[in-house]
Amino acid sequence: MHLLSALHTIIYCIVCSALLFSFCPDLDFGEIENNLRYTEMSEQRYINKLTKSGNWIVGTIQGDPVKPNAENMARASLSAHIRSHVSQKLIQELNEVISSDKDKDFISERTETTLSVITDETIMGVNPISIKKDGMWWSIALKCKEEYSKERKDYNEKLYLESKSYFDNYKNQSKSLSRSTDISTAFENLINSYILINSLTFFDQDKLDLLENNNKALNILLEKLSIDVPDKTIEVFPLSNKEIDIKCEYYPEIIQIIPMDGIDFIAEYTKGSVEDFNGWANNKKSFSVIDGNLKFDTGYINTQTADLEVLIYPDVDYVVSSINEKYQLKDQSYKISPEAIKKLKEQIREKSIKKDFVLKLKNGGKIPTFIKIDSKIRIPNNKIRNKINNNPLFKVTNTLADASVTISIQKDDNAINIALSRKNQVGELEKIDEKFIRRRDGSTPTSFSGLDLTNIVNAIGQLLDSIFETNLEFEIAKYEDCDENVTIVIENEKYDLPKEFKNFPGQTREGTIPVKKGRVNYKIYYNRDKSSAIYDTTFYVNSVQDLNDFRNICFEKKRIPYSLTFSESIIPERKSKLIWDGENHKINSIGTKLYGFRHSKHDIVYIKNGFKPFKKTINPTNEIEYPIYIDPEKVRLNVVNNFKHIILPGRSQIELYRASFPKQMQGYIYQASYLYFIGKTIYHHNQYFNHQEKYDNALMNYNSSLDQTPQYYQTLYDEVNYQHNLMSQELSDFETYGQYLILLFAANLIEVTINNVIF
Questions:
Q1: Beta strand 559-566 with 626-630: parallel, antiparallel or unpaired?
Q2: What angle do CA 198, 204, 209 make, to 5 degrees?
Q3: C-alpha torsion sign, points 688, 690, 691, 692
Q4: Radius of gyration (Cα) for the chain, nearest Å?
């Protein structure tokens, strides 16, 4: 009994402690549902009430006829607010360990990387509360701030320890590299450590040190790689393949060379393009190194580009796949950062460019072309042969087996059919395109001359060019409720300048865009001024592609809330002003939301007394709710600024009272008065000395005059008196305006002193 009683006591204490030290207050979900369903206040006001407590991050209620849709939107809204919350926290944490202004770019980069990890799939323990009201489903998603911060720090600590373990293994292995297997294992450990440390969303000094050490170690390892690309330009042929031997080695010491077996390499065409065949996809292919040799095949070249370039660099995809499989789990609060992986690949790629791991190829050969003409058709063969031979990429061959391209001219009813075929990657002949040519007089064609023959020759030229061209197709009309003001911008070798295709309401909303095979940069704009592309991607095209496969050319014209989160150091609604797209808006003490079309660009300005104006441009977004963090910089009342405020009356009022119109006017009046008084003071000072000089001259003339008439002496005397009176008046005006200036400085000094107390 005593033991049982003791156990009860222990359990009771544990429960009480858990309640006492829990991070979040208890929530009555039934009460929340009841409040949402029956409360007289609006749903948004109830949300604001929860938010005001300061304990919760709240996903915005969304009304939708389908319950799962409402819950998904609530989760997405919650993740957007959490990203804003974590962004604030991260900036504060980094500022505690980074003091130099030169590291602002680093803070921005770390913040961007962090936010890429946080999605509605990575937030644990979120079960939306949903109710049906007026035929619509309303859903709310809640997450305790303190609980989330603890989860974030705990998970980051785990990632840090894992990263450190991998890095320690790398350091131990790198001390005695003697075999290729040692290099591959060390390389994998370093990459694992690099990805994990760059996926952190919480930093202290130890973590920053490990991050820096990883970056240095990766650069050192890449520096010791050697990829022996041939110095001379290698000649290759379009519509063909060629093999080239490339040595890949590692130099840990000056006298030691280790073959790079066990590490794969990526070959990427940075100029030109190849078919998606035999391992090549999007102009890239992975190659294995055997005995220090990389057997590189050029791929099936399909471009007219004269000088082709291939960049070769280490492949980390197999390491990335492995670490993603290990850490990217459903029950984890964070995933491996996509931005960390992107940064890793960019660093490796840029280092390879700097080391000139570039294989240079010259598209120098002519493509053998066979002409096949129906015996029933009489056409001067020399005209067609000359057209082909004069093309810089084609030459006529008399042997079909040697030909890569075939031109077939056959009779077809009342026209002739000119068909263009080529050998594909497996040596089979496949038709690419065809054209039909009719005689001008409409008669059955058997022979051609003059203009008809010219049309045939030109058609053959167009068909030859089409070998290296394809089409991009798009269709906007199949999507409902789309913003119709769409501009598609294509950057491609075919166009000297980016090609624009605009679609406005009432126009045909589909089309075809011809491009040269190879690299295509594709952008979509949904605002007429093209201020920001909502979609921007680069891909390689080898055949007809539907642009809708990359992204639906549709953007719902929808007004969304832009929710404001203010720095904890300020009370936003007091002595402040909020401007959204040029219009003043009221700041709600419970929570402020602004509304606007998500496809448009928005400008926000927040002005508060004692702070510098906060200005930000919000670009188009896909979010259903967009959080904006407002953190204005405080005006520092240091010695330098106070000195400026004292010697320049009005500056203090203008800088410190930006949200107060009377104070702003006072400041400008002070400035105008200051300029007026100091101008008048200087003017009367100069005039005083000017008249004093004239008075002295008049007095000297009076005193030095001899044997003159009384009238003459009276004139001189009058001039002396006149200049003396003017001199006295200017002195009086000088003193008056000087006193005004002193009074202005005194009043300003008092206000500066008061402002130092207030702010």
A1: parallel
A2: 60
A3: positive
A4: 39
Residue ranges of the chain with per-residue pLDDT less than 70: 1-53, 61-62, 99-102, 115-117, 119-122, 178-181, 253-255, 328-334, 439-447, 477-484, 504-508, 527-529, 531-532, 568, 589-590
Residues 149 and 86 sit within 8 Å (Cβ to Cβ): no
**584 and 605 fall within a common domain:** yes
Region of residue 106 (left: phi > 0; alpha: psi -120 to 50; beta: else): alpha
Range of the structural domain that residue 399 is part of: 369-416+424-452
Q: From CA 203, how far away is CA 314, in angstroms rounded?
A: 29
CA 25 distance to own-chain centroid? 38
Number of continuous H segments (helices) and E segments (strands) in the chain: 16, 32
pLDDT per position as a tens digit, 34-79: 666 655 445 556 666 666 667 788 877 667 788 888 888 888 888 8
Q: CATH number, domain at 490?
A: 2.60.40
Is residue 480 domain-shared with residue 583, that is, in the same domain? Answer: no
Q: Domain count of the chain?
A: 6
Q: What phi and psi values does residue 724 have, to the nearest 5 degrees?
A: -65, -40
607 — phi, psi (to 5°)? -120, 130
Question: Angle 115-119-120 (CA atoms, 0-180°, nearest 5)?
Answer: 150
Q: What gap in Å lies between CA 78 and CA 57, rounded to an integer?
A: 7
* φ, ψ of residue 677 in degrees (nearest 5): -65, -45
Burial 411-430 (b: 16+ CB within 10 A, else e): ebeeebebbbbbbebeeeee
Percent of the chain with pLDDT over 90: 28
Are residues 492 and 383 part of one domain? no
CA-CA distance, 504 to 282, in Å (whole number)? 32
For 711-757, give the DSSP string. HHHHHHHHHHHHHHHHHHHHHHHHHHHHHHHHHHHHHHHHHHHHHHH
Domain-embedded: residue 384: yes
| Residue 140: C-alpha distances to residues 51, 83, 124 (Å) | 12, 17, 15
268 and 345 both lie in a single domain: yes
Tokens of 32: 């929340």
CB atoms within 10 A of CB 73: 23
- Indicate whether 303 and 383 sit together in one domain: no
Q: Where are the beta strands (DSSP E) in 49-181?
A: 56-64, 129-133, 136-144
Q: What is the dihedral of CA 573, 596, 59, 589, to 10 degrees?
A: 10
Quote the pTM value: 0.70
Burial class of 745 by CB neighbour count within 10 A (0 to 12, 13 to 18, 19+): middle
Element (H, E) at 163: helix 145-174
Helix (H) or strand (E) holding 251: none
Domain identity same for 509 and 620: no
Beta strands across the sheet bearing 405-412: 394-396, 367-373, 405-412, 415-423, 429-437
Residue with tokens 């075999």: 179
List C-alpha distances in Å: 678 to 153, 250, 674, 733, 750. Answer: 60, 75, 6, 12, 19
Task: Indicate the helix (H) or strand (E) that contains 31.
Answer: helix 29-38
Measure the CA–CA gap between 610 and 603, rounded to whole angstroms: 22
Same domain, residue pair 77 and 120: yes
Residues 348 and 235 in one domain: yes
10 Å Cβ neighbour count for 153?
15
Examine residue 7 and state whether it is found in any structural domain, yes or no: no
